[in-house]
């Protein structure tokens, strides 16, 4: 697993076009994108669905990272999930007959981060405290709350992915 020689994203300065209050969200998501690429670069495809000690597989983490970003950013736009998003959510825990292709999972996550960064860039800071509702239960949050949760949830699963990959490749 190669480790980047670059400073962490937050140490490289502001992300062009991202409002000042949302820089931490952009930094965390871009950092996660880079680290996922590094973590999975040489990972054996045959292990992607393995669950050491019953923990979530690398495939689950990659699917979940992608899905959560999409769902939370949908809610931040004030929208509810569509049928495709609900089907994706249901499939995150299902092991398919055909193994996942790591490059496709990583590419999907990176695209999700790119879409999230585009949305962050288009967000007016004046709406950050506006109420948004999550799920069918319509749990109240705010735009900034959803963005922050997307960033911290992404980093949490990135850490879990890193540990799982290290365990699976330690043999």
What would your notes on this structure say?
The structure is a single chain. The protein starts with 22 loop residues before the first helix and ends with a helix. It has 5 helices and 2 strands; from the N terminus they run H-H-H-H-E-E-H. The longest helix is centred in the last third of the chain and has 26 residues, at 143-168. The chain is mainly alpha-helical. Strands 1-2 form a two-stranded antiparallel ribbon. It is 54% helix and 5% strand. The model has no long low-confidence stretch (mean pLDDT 94). It has helices at residues 23-40, 58-76, 83-91, 102-121, 143-168; strands at residues 131-134, 139-142.
Key descriptive features of the protein:
single chain, 171 residues, Four Helix Bundle (Hemerythrin (Met), subunit A), two-stranded antiparallel sheet
Give the SSE map.
Elements: H1 23-40, H2 58-76, H3 83-91, H4 102-121, E1 131-134, E2 139-142, H5 143-168
Antiparallel strand pairs: 1-2
Helix pairs in contact: 1-4, 1-5, 2-4, 2-5
């Amino acid at each position: 697993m190669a480790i980047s020689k670059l400073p962490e994203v937050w140490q490289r300065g502001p992300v062009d076009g991202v409002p000042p209050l949302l820089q931490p969200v952009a930094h965390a998501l871009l950092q996660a994108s880079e680290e996922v690429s590094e973590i999975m670069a040489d990972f054996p495809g045959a292990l992607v669905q393995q669950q050491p000690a019953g923990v979530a597989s690398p495939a689950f983490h990659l699917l979940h990272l992608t899905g959560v970003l999409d769902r939370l950013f949908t809610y931040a736009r004030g929208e509810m999930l569509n049928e495709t998003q609900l089907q994706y959510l249901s499939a995150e825990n299902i092991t398919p007959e055909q193994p996942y292709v790591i490059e496709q999972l990583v590419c999907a996550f990176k695209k999700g981060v790119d879409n999230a960064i585009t949305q962050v860039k288009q967000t007016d800071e004046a709406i950050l405290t506006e109420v948004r509702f999550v799920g069918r239960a319509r749990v109240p949050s705010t735009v900034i709350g959803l963005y922050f949760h997307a960033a911290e949830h992404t980093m949490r699963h990135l850490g879990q992915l890193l540990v799982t990959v290290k365990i699976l490749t330690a043999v």
